[in-house]
Amino acid sequence: MSDLNTQAVARYKNNFLREVEERVEEGNMVKMCMQCGVCAGSCPFGPHWQHSPQKIFMMIRAGKREELLTSDSMWMCTSCYNCIVRCPRKLPITHIIHGLANYAHRLKLVPKGQPTRDVTKLFWDNLMKVGRINELTFSLALYFKDGLVQGIKNSLAMQSAGLGLLKAGRLNPMEIFGGHKCKEQSGIHRMIAKAREIEDGRRGLLA
Amino acid sequence: MADNKFAAYICSGCGIGDTLDIAGLEKIATREGKMALVKSHPFLCNAEGVQLIKDDIEKEAVTHICVAACSRRAKTEAFNFPTVSMSRANLREGVLWVVAEGAEHDEVRQEMAEDYIRMGCAEVKKMSLPQGNAKRDQTQNKTILVVGGGMSGMTAALASAEAGYEVALVEKTAALGGFAGKLWKRVPFSSPYADPQATGVAEMAAKISANGRIKVHLNTTVAETGGAPGRFKVKLAQESGVVNDMTVGAIIQASGFTPYDMAKLPELGAGQANVVDQAGLEAMACAANGGAIKRADGKEVKSVVFVQCAGQRDETGTHLAYCSGHCCATSIKQAMYFKDANPEVDTVVVYDDLRVPGMGEDFYRSAQKKGVVFTKGKASKVTGGDSCKVEFTDLILDEPTSVDADLVVLATGQVANAGVNLDAWTEVNTAAEGGNEEAKQKRSEMKTISVLNLDYRQGPDVPQFKYGFADSHFICFPYETRRTGIYAAGPMRRPMDMLQATEDATGAAMKAIQAVENAAQGRAAHPRAGDLSYPIVRLEGCTQCKRCTVECPFGAIDEDEKRFPVFNEERCRRCGTCMGACPVRVISFENYSCDTVGMQVKAVNVPDEDEEKPRILILACENDAYPALDMAGVQRLTYSAYVRAIPVRCLGSVNTIWITDALNQGFDGVMMMGCKKGDDYQCHFVKGSEMAYYRLSKIGDTLTQLGLEPERVVTEEVAITDNARVAKLINDYAAQLNDLGLSPMKGFG
């Protein structure tokens, strides 16, 4: 739970649909869903979702806020865009699902250890450091995210792939010392901060 | 009348002459057909060939012709000789195109062609030129009576008047408008289908009162209707008791619907405070006049739940079994009443399937944009009161849940105002006529809901179909009831919305206009529109058995005091069901009779037993089965050359004498091909094929008595698209008969 979550609950009371409309990317399109179920039927990961996209839209209308935002359903999306292509009502379903995931993350409601969220967060943090992805440090961070012992196990398991990349010249061990950087790092940081400020302002997420 | 002169014309075009022995056919027409004049032509349907026939009619005084060429359904414009009687021998689709190719089939092919020539010649000899309804000077009234002043009735009245016809518009209440007049707004009829629109009732009523051709009768009901198209006699009873007699040409019944009584839905909160039906909400919206909608207790409605399918699509048999079609769009419209006045009002529609016909999907989308919430669920309980509660099963999340609201609206369905149920009526009426006092009492009670009060022997209203809606030939001829000249429009014939009702009304008006015009010319209405023949009855032979009056699908036949049938020619559709029903064969048409078909059956040359060539008679409905046979030919699907097909107006017109004659003569089997019967009938005459099946069900015993197997007579349902199937049916039946062996009746005929 976070302050942001407490504020949201106070602000929207039981009107989860309105909360989604105002705060989630493309959330204003949720109301246009006609519950045909083509999205749920089209999703290649469908059987693995706790709540299918169709049900997610219904839960939003039914005000099942807590249940939805703490579920890991929207983290199952692989961005294949099948649902967007097929939706007869032209809902940007993939974007809404990502928006919901992002919103749950911002409210700190995501279940602990959700792997998609963890990878995404590592990726984002790595990227933001110097303005581009450092593949070596990103891989290592991923391997060691669950501690030293697990990290060594993971590294050994991926040993041959790593050596292969090394031989092919696709992996530079010197990158561990920082590696390539963008020229104007502070500029990038300022730009991202500003974008975030604008976005949060628009979505009413400013503290 | 001049002497009859018979001529036969044989076409050798389209390959007929290459495959068939034309000289042989000419010989048959002359010697056996006894035609005075027999000519052949290589291209009979071209200008020269047609001129040949015309010249003979003019110069040689030919009165009856047999055209042996293609199917009677082909080249009808070329072979159009209205001053003579004509039969058609089907050599192309019936022989050339369906008999297998090759010299080994030459013999049976030629025999088939020869039989068709014999049949064509035999038929035309029994035909005479139809003269049209002799009483047509009495059927000249072209006024159109519209019963019901709602949206359907007003539209029908305006459409008829704008086409130039006098209209009498009867409305039982004090004002035009009907159910539409009670609405605040209506569902949009045109793009962008986004917002509720003004009903337009006032404008229509003004247009009607400004139209000199329309006479409006308010506070008036139809006390009695008698007669037939072109000469309906109606009694219009005003509320004050004054009765006016009037003659009209055709009638459009637009008696509308009544909302399903919500008192029958106590589990959905009927009778409790702040639970209303859609009509109730319209009244509240009218009272609000565009402002915030207020409850009976004066409180402004801030949240409203619409419960769809309330007492509809009910599988338990307690409530309406059907979907009324309009209620989803109506609830969407009503939710917009709230959203348009105040977007902060919570509007929830609990639906099972949202059904919005026409362009309703756009309207549905518009409501979603306005923030109306749609929840797929099935309501189980509604509690009224200051704070209402709707308990329902969420069908997506599959769990019981509930929603609170200030007001609950139940979407109840449409119940047709179609008058008396004739099946129930017949039962009660029979008992009443037998002197049962209780039945007499019940009969008078039943009659209070009658709309037309017809004095027909078949009962006071138009026959009903499913669920109390008026029958209106749903597949081929919407608006057509089984009472000629009376047309059904709007939700009394099937559940529908306002736009559909206006389209219906326009269609019914066009049908009514056709009816009065045909009646004035002494011709039949659809589906034999323009047919000048009509049933002629030899009353001296009639045994008063009443089969014709009972079996006529259109209630065309009444009975006089001596119980003889009284034919109302204008009500007749010329299907011949009466002719098929008559056990003493006293009913006939000038160009279609027991003789015209019977003589064809007798003309067929049935080979002796030792020739081992069976003969199968096909009696095919001319509307669907015969075209299917023709199409089989067009597609060059081959079938047995042992069949001889005769088109009949309707399977209902098949008189069992034809079957007996055929079997006596040595035919090995009889196939009757007619349209689908039952609830999803395709019979052009509604009940004709059903009658044929019924009659055939009784023929089995007769066959057994004759020492024949019941399989020698079969009936098949054939649709117009069944061209491949029909060829297979014939071949299968031929194979079956082959197993059965030749008929033992051969040689006795």
Task: Describe the structure in brief.
The complex is a heterodimer of chains A (207) and B (749). Chain A is an all-alpha fold and 207 residues long.
Describe what you observe in this structure.
The complex is a heterodimer of chains A (207) and B (749). Chain A is mainly α and 207 residues long. Chain A has helices at residues 3-12, 16-23, 38-42, 53-61, 65-69, 82-86, 93-106, 115-130, 135-143, 148-157, 159-167, 185-203. Chain A has two domains: 3-111, Alpha-helical ferredoxin (Fumarate Reductase Iron-sulfur Protein, Chain B, domain 2), CATH 1.10.1060.10; 115-197, no CATH class. Chain A has twelve helices and no strands. In chain A, α8 (115-130) packs antiparallel against α9 (135-143). The model of chain A has no long low-confidence stretch (mean pLDDT 91). The model of chain B has no long low-confidence stretch (mean pLDDT 94). The longest helix of chain B has 23 residues, at 498-520. Chain B folds into four domains: 1-129, Rossmann fold (3-Layer(aba) Sandwich); 138-256 and 462-520, FAD/NAD(P)-binding domain; 259-414, FAD/NAD(P)-binding domain (3-Layer(bba) Sandwich); 526-588, Alpha-Beta Plaits. Chain B is elongated. The interface between A and B is medium-sized, with 13 and 14 residues.
CATH superfamily of the largest domain in chain B: FAD/NAD(P)-binding domain
| Largest sheet descriptor of chain A | none
* CATH class value of the largest domain in chain B: Alpha Beta
What is the beta-strand fraction of chain A?
under 5%
Number of strands of chain A: 0
Question: What fold name goes in the CATH topology slot of the largest domain in chain B?
Answer: FAD/NAD(P)-binding domain
The low-pLDDT segments of chain A are none
How large is the count of helical segments of chain B?
21
Mean pLDDT of chain B: 94
Which oligomeric state applies? heterodimer
